[in-house]
Amino acid sequence: MFGFWKTWKALEARGIMGINRRNADYVLKYNKRSLYPIVDDKIITKERAIQAGIHVPQMYGIISTEKEIDKLDEIIGGRSDFVIKPAQGAGGDGILVIADRFEGRYRTVSGKIISHEEIEHQISSILTGLYSLGGHRDRALIEYRVVPDQIFKSISYEGVPDIRIIVLMGYPVMAMLRLPTRQSGGKANLHQGAIGVGVDLATGLTLRGTWLNNIITKHPDTTNAVDGVQLPNWDGFMKLAAGCYELCGLGYIGVDMVLDQEKGPLILELNARPGLNIQIANDCGLTLRTHAVEARLEELKAAGVTETAEERVKFAQQMFGHIPPVEG
Fold it and tell me: Fold for domain 2-39+149-320?
């Protein structure tokens, strides 16, 4: 017991944030319960983002009742690829990604051929709340299928990699690239076996990776290096993440984004209780960074000043960047 306590005190000294501190000092302190539906429901998040002019994957339609399942053909139209997901799902469960059509059927992103009836059954399961938080009745969202930028081709398996940036009061504090693997079934979900790779806030250059709680430098399926990869349009990602504070009003959030090969950075969803594995991927604790932001907020409050999203990004990059940005 003493050994555990000694180890934990050493981790705390490095600024490692535990789940109790996250919940008490950040989630409860900065996130009003009344605002949770904005981030817990992907449809509400998407509608708010569209109103704010923030780029998201295009929404094709919503199915709210069993009777509305009959509208599926109309919603899909002539499209050969699309995504169906539960509005209140978590961890990637219940998401169906259709990549193509084949002989009157559909081909999923993993290559499985399924029928129209199987898609309808999946939507029915979503509506019953099978995948929703708390098991409540849910809605099905049909939207544009993101096509990952070619930069990820050598370091990802099948699915869509995403970028998570943790944001405190509009200030980005830590970032991670999540890469699907065969183990994760092509999903960018760390608990299911995806890789988490730290990202330098100043430059968008990837750092080391973590996979199944092990430190790695290569993707287990492609065997290519996951570190030292320059993510395109990094400032665009940072500004998108910072602007999500105004979008939802929650002070402590995880902003999940993707890089589409044609549409660029897109907001995928927001999370009011972001996980803590991002610290392993960055070899850095969250607490030291969140304390620096809180100190900044106190200074600005005393001076009667507030910062724009661009100014908040600049502060974060100067304070938390591992590698100095290249001038010019």
Answer: D-amino Acid Aminotransferase; Chain A, domain 1 (3.30.470)
